[in-house]
Structures are given as C-alpha cells and as structure tokens.
Amino acid sequence: MPISMTKKQEIIQQLLASKTKSYQAEVKLLLKRKPTEANEIKKHGKELSRKIDNLIAETMTDWTGNADKIISDVKLINKKVQRSINDINNSVNVAGNVVKLVGFIDDVVEIADGIT
Amino acid sequence: MYLWVGTRNIIFVVTFVIMSGCTTIDTKPFEKFNSSLIELNKGAVSSLDVTIPLAEGRYRNELETDLTNGNDQLLQKLFIQANPDNPFFISKPPVFLQAKKFKLGISKTNLVWLEYSKLLLQLSSKEFVDDEKFSKLSDELNKNAFDAVQSLKDDPSDASAKNTALFSELAITMAKEYIRTEQKEKLMESIINNQEAISAYVEHMQSAIVTMAQSSTQEHSEKQQNLTRDLISLVANNENGKNDAKIQKFIGDMIDVKTTHSDQMVSLHALHTAYEKIPDAHKALAKRLAKSDSSIAAITDLLEKGVQLHTSYESKAKVNKAELVQAKADAANSEATIAEFTYQQAKLKYTRAQFEYKLAQNALNEDPDNDAKKKDAEDKKKLAEELKLEADSLKESSEALRAAATAIQESANDVQYSIINN
Fold it and tell me: What is the nearest CA distance from B386 to chain A, expressed in angstroms?
C-alpha cells in the first residue's frame, strides 16, 4: 500500500533521493582522485541539503499548526464526553431519589395495608 | 388497596420492559483500546530522541564551517529579528529547534486522544452504577420501610419484612437498568459521532511519522557522508598503515549510522501501520456495544501492534546501552593498543640506535685516537640515550592506558551483565 504524503513531503522525498545520489557520486569522484569535481558536487549537495532542512522545518511548522486545530477539536469532544459522564452521575442521583420515593410509596402501601 | 395494586402494576410493567432489554457493558474492549493508545504513544516520539541531537550536532558543525568561510546563512537562523507589523514575530529557527516543537506537538496531540479513550473507558465502567451505593440505599430503604410497618402494625412478621424487601429490590434493579441504558446510549453516541475525528487524527499522526522518517534519513545521510569523506581521506593518506586504527573506527561508526537508521525506518513503518488500525478498533467498540458477541479482533490487533512496538523499543534501548558501553571499552582498548604499538616502535628505534652506538664504540676502540670516530660514537651514544628515554616514557603511558582499558572493559562487562539479567 502506497504511503500517503502531503505535497511538501513528496517534494522532500524526491530531494532526499537526489541528495543521497549526489553523495554517492561525490564518493565515486573522490575514489577516482578527482577532488575538484567531487567538491563541486559536494557544494551542490550541501545546497540541496539546506533546501531539504528548510522544507522539513516548514512541514513541521505546518503540522504543528494543524495539530493545534485538532487538539482544540478533541478537547471539545472530551468536554462533551465528560458532560455525558456528569449527566449519568446526576442520573445515578436521580435514580437514587426514585428508589427512595418508591420505597416511600412502598411504606405507605404497607401501612395502608396494615390498617385496612 | 387500590393505590397498592396500581403502584405494583406500574412498577411491574416498567421493570419488565427494562429487564427484557438487559443492558450490560463489556469494559474489556475499552480497556484494550486505551492500552493500545498508551503503547503507541510511548513509541511515537522515540525516533526524534535520536534525530534531534544529530540535527543539533550537524547544525553546530556546519555553522562553524560557514563562519570560517565567511558565510552567515546558518547564523541567520539564530538571529532575533523584529517584524515591522508583528510584535510576536519569531524568525525561522534551525531545523533541530523546529523538531523540538514538533515533538512537543506530537506528544500533546497523543495526550488529548489518550484523555478521550480514558473518558470512554470511564463511561463504559461498571463503577458508574455503583453497586455499593445502591446496596446501601437498598438496605436503608428496607430498614426504614420495615420500621414504619412495625411501628404502625406492631407485627414484625417475616412475611411483611420479605414483601417490603422484595418490593425495594425491584425498585433498585429498575434504577440500575435505567442508568445502564443511559450509559450505553451515551457511549454509542460518542463513538459514532467521533469516528470521523479519529480518522482525521490518525491521518495527522501518520503524516507526522512520514516527517520523522524523512528527518531521520536527512540526518543519518548527512552524518554518514561526513564519515565517508573522512574515511576516504584517511585511506588515501595511510602510508605504512599509520591510520589503520582510525580507519577501522570510522568504518565502525558508519556501521552504527546504518544500523540506527535501519532500526528507525523499521520502527517508524511499524508505527505508521499501527496507527492505521486505530479507526477500525474504534469502530469495533461501537459494534461491540450494539452486539455483545461482535468481534473485537481489530482492537486486539491494535493492542498487539502497540505492545510489539514497545517491546522492540525496549529491547533496542537495551542493545543500544550495551553497545554504547562496549563501544567505550573498544575505544579505550584501541587507544591502549595504539600506545603499545607506538612504544614497540620506539623500543625498536632505541635498540637499533644502541646497536649503532656499540658498532661505533668498537670502531673507536680499535682506533682510539681517531677524532671522527670518537665524535661518531659520542653522537650515537647520545641518540641512543634520548631514544631510551622516549621509549621508557611511552612504555609508562602505554601501561597506564592498558590498565585503564582493562578497567573500562570490566565495568562494561558488569553493565552488560546487569542489562541481560534485568
């Protein structure tokens, strides 16, 4: 299953692939004792790396911004669930009162039963 | 009498209706769901704990190189800049500082969802219909009713007490069932309403995991490239094997970088897959509520993934710790070996010089008035003496380094033993 990515993440992925390839090329040139060419590749690779750094930082900023929205939405959801819990807690009390009331009727019935 | 019959009928009907839909909530799926999210949360930010220090180290090194070359591009990221329109403006920081905020954001997001699953668990809890509270209520009710009957009738017969108790028990059961029904309805409502939000959360977390993977690849590839450059340079300038020990050290470091990166990719991929299972697990909670024999395989699957991830993180942490202490011992051992080798070389030089001196001295003995031979013997004697001093000093330091390396290895053995046995 393909991994879903945002547009920026797709670009980062492509740039990472290019950068690691350029690093491999730099190594090959160094091994062939062509330092000038290797340095030229290194310079461009570094530029690419800084672009990637900037894009990763931007992705993190975007993510954190969106997370703030999600966090506040979930906080609202949690408040609603908490309200449900409170409602039920109140209902327990109501039910308790109902029990008491029914018990009271029970008493009255028993009393009336005893008298008549 | 009419009141008695009427009340009994009403209570019978209501009780029958409620009892026939006997509402119980199985809390186990909710407990499992909660545990799964806890396990996933533990693994969610651990890759950043490795990537952030790598990114900071790289930034510091590159900043120094930049400044040496007269560039201020990286330094700009540390500048505090004011914006003409925004009093709260923060300029773009280096990526490692952004990653720290990102890590905090992930933890905060996971925490609110953990809170949600905790609330679901609370809402499903049997504790809600507090049996103890109801039992106490029931006891009081029966006692009061019985006392009232007794004071009026003056006939504390068993039958009267039993009737009163039975009637009160029915009322308690009714109340309990009423609460359980309400509890179940609220739970169903919450789960169904929040399904969409759960999916959005999962998508968001998976996106964070992709960014963590990319950040990890960025940092590890940078680290590896620096090591590769140094390694190639050492190999190119390795006359007479003088760099052999350093070369092996760099190769070891490269193996470590590759291993850490691979471990992180495997863990992050597993985490990505585990998050994918959350929506189905959440949906399974609603299904289980609606139908008590409905499968909770999705929740179990999620929990297993979470536990596996956590176990793998723990075992990796142990391996990392063991590797770390062993790496220190290996480094000390290498240092001691290099010192011993240097001492042996110095000793060899001294032996040769001493031999040369003896030859010169023999030549002088055969021709004692020869000034040139006299000077040659004196020079060689002096050189031999200097080399002896140097060799003695190297012997001392190599012995000290060997003793230190042995002590470090012994302490590494102790640490490894304690890790294995805990």
Answer: 41
Transcribe B267-306 into DSSP letters.
HHHHHHHHHHTHHHHHHHHHHHHH-TTS--HHHHHHHHHH
Asked if B112 and A30 come within 8 Å (Cβ–Cβ), the reply is no
Give B5's pLDDT tier (boundaries 50, 70, 90). Answer: very low
| C-alpha span between B357 and B379 (Å, rounded) | 8
Task: Inform me whether the C-beta atom of residue B114 falls under 8 Å from chain A C-beta atoms.
Answer: no
ipTM > 0.85? no
Closest residue to A103, CB basis, from B129, B168, B179: B168
- Cα dihedral A35→A39→A40→A42 (10° resolution): 140
Q: Tell if the CB–CB gap between A81 and B116 is shorter than 8 Å.
A: yes
Nearest CA in chain B to A82: B119
The CA-atom distances, in angstroms, between B46 and each of B127, B223, B409 are: 35, 19, 29
Core vs surface per residue A37-60: b (16+ CB within 10 A) or e? ebeebbeebbebbeebbebbbebb
Does the residue A94 lie in any domain? no
User: Residue A55's domain spans which residues?
Assistant: 7-83
Q: What is the pLDDT of residues B69-106, one digit of tens each?
A: 999 988 988 988 888 888 888 888 998 998 898 888 88
Mean pLDDT calculated for residue range A39-46 = 92
Please state the domain count of chain A: 1
**Is there a contact between B357 and B381 (Cβ–Cβ < 8 Å)?**
yes
The answer to the question of residue A37 being in a domain is yes
